[in-house]
Write the structure tokens for this entry.
Amino acid sequence: MRICVVMAMHAEAEPVVEMLGLRAVDRPPWASHVPMRLYEGKTRTNTIDLVVNGLDPDTGIDCIGTQAATASTMLGCEAFAPDLVVSAGTCGGFACRGGEIGTVYLAHDRVWYHDRRVPLPGFDRFSRGGYPCLPLDSIADDLGFSSGVISTGDSLDLSPADARRIDEVGAHVKDMEAAAVAWIAGLFGAKFTAVKVVTDLVDGPHPTEQEFLENLSMATDRLAEALTRFLREISDADLKGSAPA
Ligand code: SAH
């Protein structure tokens, strides 16, 4: 199958590129003035296109968050018509739901937004997201990953209103990209999943940004290993699972 992997940060992508032996594409099939970078490669049965959000030309830092993730996924889906889109990266975890630093999660059930609040009929549901993930719990079991509900927002910190929405859906994973990637994948009729490794515990005693930086290198190594195993394991038969009810 054809798989488009979308990642936000170069630090997250580099170990993946190395471990999967991906090749940098000098001229991606999109306008040269957008920062999104492309790497390509193959496993025995799958063709992999990895789109990395790239660096913001103004600030020079990685384009994290839903805005760039939306654009990257759109470019990848238009260019490659993938069967499966994977949002891969680091995330915050929840000790109260069994999360630990370094836990590897595969997306379970649906992926939500926790920071889009529009209390108007119809718009409330649109704003919450709730996009379906391909049912892959048995692959998660086989690979020794945890299955987790993901909630996405554009801030690294946690406001009380965000926390309430995260608790409502019982999220195991807090990130800044997955829901945006899932929405575009759905528009293109592609299946969606995410592989996320915990860098920091949202409900732990340490400040998120400090814990994130301390654990980033360990988490990105684990992510590369997990994503490589996942991309080698997944096959056409796994695409047939039905969406969550
Ligand atoms: N200061 C960091 C910024 C990283 S922001 C830097 O070195 O550039 C966090 C990134 O990791 C986002 O892409 C997000 O998806 C993920 N992430 C890790 N922990 C998170 C958390 N607790 N909440 C939200 N996103 C988190």
